[in-house]
Specification:
Radius of gyration: 24 Å
Number of helices: 11
Strand content: 25-35%
Largest sheet: 6 strands, antiparallel
Distance between the termini: 40 Å
Strand order of the largest sheet: 20-21-22-29-24-27
Structural class: alpha/beta
Helix content: 10-25%
């Protein structure tokens, strides 16, 4: 039986300002009405498989859990990596977990941020690869390329073997001339980063070629802590694990690597040019999302989050508008967005990590205005959710309920606050906010004080495990 393992780490910096550290591209609705993670899970429908296992970063755990909840599917848990250690250790954790019930399933390792347009072709190729994997082969899926792409690694095929080929070599990202030769030869495929193999076979090869990674992961998973949907492993042991990809750790060394060609409209959406290519386009080659008006505009991607964007007499541009940033780039230069991200990191700008709208396990908030000694937020609390019992050393807060009913605790008093009512929380008062109702609670929060940073929170109780 196939057990899907979906890798949902990564930051997707080449899609800034849409994708940021606290809300990267795998959790965004870039194409269609579902997020990339949700589309990846939905793509499995039609393949007989065990419940999905998800692997993601600690800071994204509540976003991932909420998106799984929206799908209302059974899953085996959300593995939380204490730190990023690349794909070889992450998959090792999944393999060890899969073997706990005296089973040895086929692990179908997928990235959460890929687009595959032809679902039936995807199903067919995965099913064709299962026989190879059942017989101990470590299968990687090679994308049948239609152009000399320099942004991907390549896989050179060797002798034919059932529905695939023995892997002759893994090749690093080539220059344009070399990529052209690869595509014209018909012997090379794009490296998709998708795999299928028995859990035991992967661990056997990992132990043979990288016993240090094997030992660190074995030690890390020996100490497991389950919390709601989340599975945590021993932090110190995992931090000691080397950082390495599956390709370098196992696939380039094993004698049992097989590549199965896949022609299914695949893209890793590695930048805005790729996003434009996989998006629906009008008769002028434009791909628009949001409120966009265009005159004499061609081959342009416009992504507007919250306001009207108008274009006149432009071509081959990328224009991205979010609530707190605007990006304008030539489509051919859109890969260089990463240079902007590096500048923002060097200047310690918050925009590199945070959107203006920030998601929390209890809901979200939107920082609508700020100035010297004040900040205004619009807060949404989900039904039944509760913020932590907390206090602030440097700021007071004033809450005005816009819709719904709030249950408010301030020190030893408790009260209900409804629409068009407000309440004041003094500096250092211990307080909590809860939505006891059946609909979203919407409120405006006005903060005032000498310091308004998010780290001025002392938590005393928290149902989401955030008390340190």
């Amino acid at each position: 039986m196939i057990s899907p393992v979906i890798m949902a780490g990564g930051s997707g910096t080449r899609l800034w300002p849409l994708s940021r550290g606290n809300y990267p591209k795998q959790f965004l609705k870039l194409i269609g009405n579902q997020t990339m993670l949700q589309q990846t899970i939905g793509r499995l429908h039609g393949i007989e498989h065990n419940p999905v296992m998800l692997i993601c970063n600690e800071e994204h755990r509540f976003i991932a859990a909420e998106q799984l909840r929206q799908l209302d599917i059974e899953h085996t848990g959300i593995f939380l990596e204490p730190v990023g250690r690349n794909t070889a250790p992450a998959v090792a954790l999944a393999a060890f977990k899969a073997l706990e019930n005296n089973q040895d399933p086929l692990l179908l390792v997928l990235a959460a941020d890929h687009v595959i347009e032809d679902r039936q072709a995807f199903h067919r190729v995965v099913i064709e690869a299962t026989e190879l994997a059942e017989h101990g082969k470590l299968v990687t899926f090679g994308i049948v390329g239609d152009k000399p792409e320099t942004g991907y690694g390549y896989i050179k095929r060797g002798a034919a073997l059932q529905h695939g080929f023995v892997v002759d070599a893994f090749v690093e990202k080539p220059d344009s001339a070399t990529a052209k030769q690869y595509i014209e030869s018909g012997e090379y495929y794009w490296n998709s980063g998708m795999f299928l193999f028995k859990a035991s076979r992967y661990l056997d090869e990992l132990k043979a070629f990288r016993p240090d990674i094997y030992a660190a992961c074995e030690k890390a998973i020996a100490v497991q802590n389950s919390d709601m949907d989340f599975i945590r492993v021993d932090k110190a042991a995992f931090e000691a694990c080397p950082d390495e990809s599956i390709d370098y750790a196992v696939m380039e060394r094993t004698k049992d690597a097989v590549v199965v060609p896949m022609d299914a409209g695949w893209s890793d959406v590695g930048g805005f040019a790729a996003l434009w290519e996989v998006s629906s386009q009008d008769e002028n080659g434009n791909a628009f999302k949001g409120d966009v008006k265009a005159v004499d505009t061609k081959n342009t991607l416009v992504f507007s989050e919250d306001k009207l964007v108008a274009t006149v007499g432009v071509e081959d541009l990328v224009i991205v508008n979010t609530k707190d940033a605007v990006l304008v780039a030539h489509k051919d230069k859109s890969q260089e967005v990463k240079a902007i991200v590096n500048q923002l990191k060097a200047e310690q700008r918050s925009e590199v990590t945070f959107h203006r709208e920030v998601y929390r396990p209890w809901g979200k908030y939107d920082s609508v205005d700020n100035g010297e000694r004040f900040q205004v937020k619009r807060i949404t609390v989900k039904p039944g959710a509760k913020l932590s019992v907390q206090m602030h050393h440097h700021r007071a807060e004033h809450w005005i309920v816009v819709s719904g009913t709030a249950k408010v605790q301030i020190d030893d008093t408790e009260q209900f606050v409804t629409e068009n009512e407000s309440v004041y929380i003094p500096i250092t008062a211990v307080h909590a906010l809860e939505n006891p109702g059946k609909v979203d609670l919407e409120l405006i929060e006005v903060q005032s004080g000498s310091y308004l940073g998010e780290d001025d929170i002392v938590r005393f109780e928290d149902r989401y495990g955030r008390v340190k």
